[in-house]
Write a structure and sequence with these properties.
Layout (H helix, E strand, L loop, with lengths): L3 H16 L6 E2 L14 E13 L6 E14 L3 H18 L1 H6 L2 E12 L6 E14 L10
Parallel strand pairs: 1-2
Antiparallel strand pairs: 2-3, 3-5, 4-5
Length: about 150
Amino acid sequence: MAHVRKQLRDAVVALLVAEGGAGARVNTVAIDAPAGAGGFPERRVSCPGSTVTRASTSGESARQIELIVAAYVTADALEDAVDAEAAAIEAAILTDAGLRALCVEIQFIGDELAVDLEGDRPAGRVRMQFAAVIVTAPNDPETQEA
């Protein structure tokens, strides 16, 4: 087994590859790496942090994991392309049965848009933040509890 953060990252990468947006180019390159580091279009997935609370008297832990998904695109209608990526990603993550089986809760927190008008072609990015709660066995960050 792997840490539940890795399990979440892997599940989101698999979901976004299957969903097919961004030419199915989805990876875990650092969110803040230069735009286009993996080519355009591109989606990046990261789980940079978490908080843990006791979920029950049996010692289970509720782990709230920060999930970041960033999408990078180039287009003539840049804001429209960024918004289309954001809508597709949000819908995919919030409705996927596999993620619902892993997480007791997953919610969209917000997003941030950025555009870069320098270079040969304008590029845009949307950085989306989600909060996912996964319950784990006592003192075991790898074993998800049903």
